[in-house]
Amino acid sequence: MKVTEKNGHEYRVIGTRPIRHDGVDKVTGRAQFGADVRLPGMLYGQVVRSPYPHARIKSIDTRRAQEHPGVRAIITAADMPALDTDAVAELGEGAIELKYASQLIMARDKVVYQGQPVAAVAATTRQAARDAARLIEVEYEPLPVVEDALAAMDPGAPLIHADLYTVTPGGGKAEQPSNVAKHIQYERGDLEAGFAEADVVIEREFRTAMVHQGYIEPQNATASWEADGRLTVWTSTQGAFSAREQLAQLLQIPAGRIRVIPMEVGGGFGGKIQVYLEPIAALLSRKAGRPVKMWMSRAEVFTGTGPGSPTYIRCKLGAKRSGALVAAQLYMVYDAGAFPGAPVGAGAVTALSPYRVPNFRIDGYDVVTNKPRVQSYRAPGAPQAAFAVETVLDEIAESLGMDPVELRLKNASAEGDRLVYGTPFNRIGFREVLEAVRDHPHYNAPLPERRGPYAFGRGVAAGFWFGGSLTSTVQLTFNPDGTVNLITGSVDLSGSRASLAMIVAEELGLEPHEVKPIVADTDTVGYTDVTGGSRTTYATGTACWRACQDAIAQLKVRAAQLLEADPDAVTFGGGEFWLWEEPQYRISLKEVVANLQKTGGPIVAKGIVNKLKMAPAFGAHIVDVGVDLETGKVDIVRYTAVQDVGKAIHPTAVEGQLQGGAAQGIGWALFEGYVFDGGVMRNPNFLDYRLPTALDLPMIDTVLVEVPASDGPYGVRGVGETPIVPPIAAVANAIARATGVRIRELPMSPERVWRALGGADQPASDDQAGETG
Amino acid sequence: MSTKVIVETTINGVPETFVCEPRQTLLEVLREELGLTGTKEGCGNGNCGACCVLLDGRPVNSCLVLAVEAQGREIVTIEGLAADGLHPLQQAFLEHGALQCGACTPGFLVSAKALLDAHPRPTEQQARRWLAGNLCRCTGYDKIIRAVLDAAERMQADGSAGEAALADKAEAGATGNAPQSSSRPTAGEEVRPA
C-alpha cells in the first residue's frame, strides 16, 4: 500500500489505523447479528415459496398445516393490506413501486418468479415450521415463462404485468402494455457527424449474467407485535429507517408505532435494503401473539432476494487517430427481474461520464422477466456498463497502437467536464489515478514468459461511482470520564464505526477509543438513510464533524465559566480550551466534560447532513492473468487497485474496501452467474454458484490516491462502490492480451474461454467463439 | 415429531448435556439450544465454512454434523478460542483489519487454528489451501492471509507452538508437505520477476 499525498495536511488521528471498536466482539463470537436474537416465547417462521417462475395461484389450502403440532400462525397475501396505489417506496439506493414491493413480500393471485413467497407459517420449533410449510397445498396454473430480457422486449412476448406501460424518455407512457418498464435516453452533439469524423469505429455486444451480492449472512428478521399495536423488529439491514418506512407502507401502520433495531450485518452490498422477511415475521407475530424469528436458507437467498441485474449492452465508440474520442453510442438493456427497477440509469450515466465525448447517444431499457427482482449490488449498474465501454476502449487502443492508459488519459474527464446528464463534475481525481497506474511498478514490470500452455497478459480498466450524500444524523453525549458517545443511525457494514469515531476523536482532541460509536435504533436517533452508495464515511462523517463543532461551541461556554472568562475570549484546539489573550489560562476538554453538572448540566451535540455535493471516486485496476490455453482456465496472478479516496480516514479499512470490491469483480468476471432453465435457477448454492476462494486470488495491492473532494471534512470521499467497477473489463482485457481472443459474455468460465480459443469444433451458444476464433 | 435424544459432550472444555431431535444439526443445537451464536450459518450445506468448529481437534462444518454425533466428543467453538486473553490469531485479525462484516470471521479463526495446530509455519499457499473452504465476501482474503501468517510467526516467536513446530518441521521434511508444484502457477504464487 502506498498513499499519494495530495492535500499535505497533517492529522493526529485521521490516517492512522486503530483497532476497530467492534473488533473484539467480532473475533470472539460475541457480536449480535440478526439471527442471534433470542426472545422469550419466540416462535420460528418459515416461508412457502413458489416453485414456478410464472403461474396463476388457483388455491392455497392451509388446513393440514394448521393442524400440525406446534403451529401457531399461518399467513397468505390475504393477511396483507392490498396496495393498489401508484405510490413509490424510496429505498435510499433505488426505489420500487409499493404495489410491487408488496408482491415481493407475498404473491397475490399470481407468481412472477421462482422463489416468490405465497404463504408463511410460525411454529414452536424450526422443525415444526418446516414440516408444516410442506403441508401447505398450493395449486398453480403455470403460465408461459419470459426468461430473457431481449425476448421479453419482443412485442409478441407474453406479458408479465398486464398493467405495465413503458415510460418513454419524455416522461410519457406507451399506449400498449409491454415488458419494457422504462426507456431512458441521453444525447449530446451530432452522433452521425461524430462517427463520420472518426478514424476508427468499433462496435461490440456484451452480455452479463445475473449475479448475487453473496453476503455470507442470510436475510433474517425477528418481530414482536405487542397487544397495544407496537411493533419491534430486529433485523440485519443496511438501513433501519428505510426498513421502518417500508414496514409502515407495506403493513399500512404509522411509522411511529414501529421500532426497528438494526443488528450487526453480515454483509449487504446493496442487497439488504429491501425488506423481505420483516413484514412476514411481523404479520406472523401479530397473528400468533408471540415473537417470531426467521432466517433464509442459502437457496432462499439466491431465489428469494434481489441479485444484480443481468444485461445486454451494445457499445460503439469512434476515435480519431490521435486517440481523441469523437462519438459513442450505447444500447443498454438491463433486466429487472419480475418487477420494474433495474439500475439502467446509473449504468447509462457511469458508462460514458468518465470520458469527454462530444457526440453520443445512450438508450437504456428497464425490462421485466420471470426472474428474481434485482436490487442494488455495489455500484449498481456500473460494472456491466464499464465492462462494455472499457473493453471497446482497449480494442481502440490496440487498433491505434496506443497504450491503453494513455488513451484514457487523453480523454479522461476532469473538473468542469459534464456527466452525460449535463451536470459538471466538481473536483475529481481520474487523471491522478491514471497517472498513478501509468507510473506504477506493476504496470511497468515485464510479464512472465509463457510456460507450456500457460500464457500471460496484462489488462487495465477504469470506473467510478458518484459518492452519495442523503441524510444522516449524529448525536454526541458526554461521560464523566471525558469519553464521548457517538450515536449514529448509520448501520456499520464493514467497520465504518471506527472511521466515524476517528473523525470525532480528531476534532475533539481525543484518542479513537475515547469515542464510543453506537449504532442506534429508529426510536433513539434522528432519521438516517441507508448505509449504501458509498455515503457513510462521507455523509455521516460530515455529520460527525458538524456535531463536533456544535459540541465545541457548547463546551466553550462551560469552559468560559470554569475559566471565569467571557465565552468569546475562549478558543479550542488540541483537546484544550484556552483564552485568546492569556493562553496560560487553559482547561482540557475532559475537565470541562467532568464538570458539566456544575456548569449547567449535560449537553447533547448534534450534526445533521441533508445534502452534500457529489464526491465521485475514480479507480483504475491493473491485472495480470495467466490463461491455460489447453483448458481455458484463467488465474489471477497479480492485481493492483488504484483509487482516488479523497482522504483515507482509516487506511486499513479503505484498502479492505478496494480489495473486497476487486475480489467481487473478479468473481463476476470469471466464476459467478445464475444458471436458469425455463426461469428456474439450477445452481442456488455456493458449490455451483462459485464465489472466489482464498485459492483463487493473489494478494491484492492497493494504491490510495488522495485528491480532496469539494465538500465534507478532510476531502474524504466514499470508497466502497468504485472498486467493483473496473475488474471485469480489466480481466477481460488481460485475457485478450494473453490470448488474442476477446470474451464478451460473463462469466468468462474455463468452458467459455476454451471454446473462444477454438477448443471445440462447435461454437458456444453465444456468438463469441465464432467471432473471435 | 420425533423422539428427542440426550447427548453428552464437552464444549470448550466444559461437560455439556443437551437434548435434541436426531435430525438436528450440531450447528442448530449450538446456536438455538445452547446459545453459542458465535458459530454462524452461512449456507447450511457445507459450502461456506462460517459454521466451522473443531470436533476432536479436527475442523468440521457443524451444519453437516448431526448433533447426536457429538456424543462423547470434544467440541471447540469460536467462544472457546480465547483462553488467557485473545488468541494470537484473534489479535492478528484485529491488527491487520482481517474482517469487515465479521460473519465469516469465527469460521476463519477456527479453521486457521486448525491450520496452525497442524502446520505452525504455513506457507502462503498452504494457508490459502487450508482456508479455501471458508468463504469471505468482504475482504478479498488479502488481510486474512496476512493475519494468519503473522499470527503463526508471532506464535513461533513466543514459543507458544514450539513443540508443534518441531513436529511440523519433521513432518514437512519427511513427507514433502509443501503444496505440489507444477508448471501451472496458481493464485498467490509469486510469478512476477523480482
User: What portion of the residues of chain A fall into strands of 2 or more residues?
Assistant: 25-35%
What name goes with the CATH superfamily of the domain at 1-6 and 427-461 and 617-773 in chain A? Answer: Aldehyde oxidase/xanthine dehydrogenase, molybdopterin binding domain
CATH class term of the domain at 1-6 and 427-461 and 617-773 in chain A: Alpha Beta
Mean pLDDT of chain B equals: 86
Instruction: State mean pLDDT of chain A (0 to 100 scale).
Output: 95
Q: Pairing-aware structural class of the strands and helices of chain A?
A: alpha+beta
Unreliable segments of 5+ consecutive residues of chain B: 162-194
Q: CATH class of the largest domain in chain B, anyone?
A: Mainly Alpha
For the sheet with most strands of chain B, the description reads: 5 strands, mixed
Per DSSP, the total helix count of chain B is 6
Output the CATH homologous superfamily of the largest domain in chain B: [2Fe-2S]-binding domain
Q: Widest sheet of chain A: strand order?
A: 4-8-2-17-14-15-16
Percent of sequence in beta strands of chain B: 5-15%
Q: What's the number of structural domains of chain B?
A: 2
* SSE ordering of chain B: EEHEEEHHHHH
The CATH topology of the domain at 1-6 and 427-461 and 617-773 in chain A is given as Aldehyde Oxidoreductase, domain 4
- Total of helices of chain A: 21
- Note the gap between the termini of chain A: 39 Å
User: Which structural class is indicated by helix and strand composition of chain B?
Assistant: alpha+beta
Round the Cα radius of gyration of chain B to an integer and report it: 18 Å
